Amino acid sequence: MARPILRHDELIPQFRQLRNFIFSQKNMALGLSLFSLGLCKKVLIADTISPWVVGALNNAYELSFIEAWVGALSYTFQLYFDFSGYSDMAIGLGLMFNIKLPINFNSPYKATSISDFWRRWHITLSNFLRDYLYIPLGGSRRGEVRRYSNLLTTMLLGGLWHGAGWTYVIWGGLHGVYVSINHWWRKLNIPMPKVLAWVITFVAVIVSWVLFRAQNIQDGLEILQTMAGLNGVLMPGEAKGKLSVLTNFGFQLKSWSDMTYLPELWGSKIFSILGLIGLTFSVSFLPNTQEILAKLKPTWWWAVWIGILTRVIDSNKNLPNNIFDGENGFIPYLNVDPKKTKSRFEKIMGNYYVGYHTTYQLSTQLLDEFKKVVDLCQQNKIKLISYISPAHATQWEIIKSSGQWSTFEEWKRKVVEISDVFDFYGYNSITTEPIHNNMENYTDNSHYTPKVGNLILNRLLSYKKEEVPEDFGILINSENIESHLIKIRQDREIWVKNHPNEVNLVKEIKQKYDAKLAEKIR
Hints:
Radius of gyration: 26 Å
Oligomer: single chain
Structural class: mainly alpha
Strand order of the largest sheet: 3-4-5
Number of helices: 19
Number of strands: 5
Helix content: 55-70%
């Protein structure tokens, strides 16, 4: 459970107070209410828009102006509702046991300055950085130059605290610059309209979140360029429709159906945009969970309302997600239209090709971490079952065409030196079905349906509810790895012979993305 950052003196003394061991109806009611509200934020909002983020921000070079903004806003809200929801759940759980944890979020997107934002966002982290980094470094006591230096250092380390990646460091440095500018502006004593201050702060935070979430710095900068209109301003609309007048002002129009990375909500892309507008309104004007809880007076009506919310959460687990889940698997709506499926497939395959071509290599660090997990399980007599997740045979063709086949084989050799592994990744009866023919097992090259997921579990757990094909999930080890790799090569030759259309599609994608890679090099 994610929770606020606690100090010893905030928590331990509460365990020594005898009255905290006495059941409190009030605290139980408040705790259950806060936990339920946090769960709603996480499940009903954050989990709903999370796929919108993946679809957009993982395809930086394919986005249009409106898709980039939708992706950035989606992540801005997904991160807040997910993290604050978890924090509310942790605080609510503590309250049920008479333990009071500090508030961690206080409507951060209502902030009218970056300093105000950090007083509202991840409050316990802000306090930690202030008390254990900024003040020990000298704070504002040693002149203005040292003050700005301390601010930058504190925020850079705050970025590094989130992870050992350059995107996190740049995010921290950017907020250090933001806070420094904020302090400089306050010294000028120039008033700014509250609405303008809110807009500047909100946009600045969105920009920083894009860099924070981006897969790498180049992707982050590309998304920001698209959001700034430097790659053209492409809006949804028909060339002969009501919005055609926008073309006179330099805008470009593209039909709603061709906006691949514009998500759908309740079957409509317009609803997803309206949903983001509604979330912007809610985080800017509506009370947060703490403010709601402060007005709470436990009654039967309130209990019924909380019960309805939790029932909605429970039923939501069975609702197919419009983008990433459902009975038909990954992006079910694309199965209906072969043209859209092919377009989506080509983009995903292209991204894999670029990734394999430019960055795919053996990682001794990852292998070392895997060995640590295996050793730890052996020491503690924990049964560990490891497996290589399946992917459609076309992804193998991408590996082959990018010249990384030998690297992937070497990966398997290194892995089995550490532990026996179930290998679902190959040319087997599940991964070689024809593309775009309303596939039962796969709906793109690497995302499999729940049916395949059940087969994996059945193989791993020896659960015979559904018969698993013999060639799906071979247990490999250091003794049979070479014969296993030879079998995969033979199976590939058979698949290539039987699926010329899929092979030609991979060749087309290779040619297209080779040209893009050449342009980047120039």
